[in-house]
Design a protein that fits this description.
Layout (H helix, E strand, L loop, with lengths): L23 E5 L6 E8 L3 E9 L4 E9 L2 E8 L6 E8 L4 E8 L1
Antiparallel strand pairs: 1-2, 2-5, 3-4, 3-6, 6-7
Length: 104
């Protein structure tokens, strides 16, 4: 901070920690070829639902999931889907995550 006389004073540095409080959802490999790999990192055992929509809003895949604590991987066949854009939605009691991806 600089006062009106031009004197400088620096504040002390403080460390803050922001805990991760939600499930992390990632897609391994984008664009997707024949199989969609969804990585879900869960901080606790939980239930959720995974839905995949094309860009026209058509539901292409839906599945209920039980996630143990830690890293989980879901392999979803995508070989019958047309090439184009899609959105994956993961929903649980605490959050909704949406991730776009391309299928080639």
């Amino acid at each position: 901070m600089v006062d009106k006389n031009g004197n400088k004073e620096y504040s002390s540095v403080r460390k803050i920690t922001i805990p991760i409080t939600e499930t992390i959802v990632q897609i391994a490999g984008n664009p997707v070829k024949n199989q969609l790999k969804v990585l879900l990192i869960s901080l606790k055992q939980q239930k959720g639902q995974l839905q995949i929509y094309n860009m026209k809003g058509r539901l292409m895949h839906q599945q209920n999931v039980r996630l143990p604590e830690g890293q989980n991987q879901l392999d979803i066949p995508a070989n019958t889907w047309p090439n184009g854009g899609y959105i994956i939605h993961f929903t649980n009691k605490d959050q909704i995550k949406s991730i776009p991806f391309i299928k080639n």
